[in-house]
Automatic annotation (TrEMBL):
UniProt keyword annotations, A-Z: Isomerase, Metal-binding
Family under the similarity heading: Belongs to the methylmalonyl-CoA epimerase family.
Gene3D superfamilies in alphabetical order: 2,3-Dihydroxybiphenyl 1,2-Dioxygenase, domain 1
Classification via InterPro entries: Glyas_Bleomycin-R_OHBP_Dase, MeMalonyl-CoA_epimerase, MMCE/EMCE_epimerase, VOC_core
Example of a GO MF term: methylmalonyl-CoA epimerase activity
Designated gene of the protein: mce
Official protein name in the record: Methylmalonyl-CoA epimerase
Length: 134
């Protein structure tokens, strides 16, 4: 079961400029920056109330974010949902016929295990499952 929206991921061309922009827009500073080597991205997180925004900048031309930016430009890349047990949720979605973009959860930013659900089956929205690493 998906408990809540964990964050909204936004693909950006320039992380430094985007951090300045979102700091002004949201009225709060970026609370965390992190490189995710496995995904070839650098991220920046903002917290407004209970809501999180993740900015993602590609660090390699072969990264999913680089390909997204090339195809669609800057904008919302994914919506992440908090789950209690990512393994159970992945199995449930597979049994329901959804295509997962990875067979096993992988380590993502912000101390999370993550898995993506193919957007062809979710009305064009890339969905990310997130579980806090305990």
């Amino acid at each position: 079961m998906m408990r809540k929206i964990e964050h909204i991921g936004i693909a950006v061309k320039n992380l430094e400029e985007s951090i300045k922009n979102y700091t002004l827009i949201l009225g709060v500073p970026c609370y965390k920056r992190e490189k995710v080597e496995s995904e070839y991205v650098e991220t920046a997180f903002f917290l407004t109330g209970e809501n999180k925004i993740e900015l993602l900048e590609a660090k390699h031309p072969d990264s999913a974010i680089a390909k997204f930016l090339e195809k669609k430009g800057e904008g919302i890349h994914h919506i992440a949902f908090d789950v209690e047990d990512i393994f159970k949720e992945m199995e449930r979605l597979k049994l329901e016929g959804y295509t997962l973009l990875n067979e096993q959860p992988k380590r993502g930013a912000d101390n999370k295990l993550i898995c993506f659900v193919h957007p062809k089956e979710t009305n064009g929205v890339l969905m990310e499952l997130c579980q806090e690493i305990r």
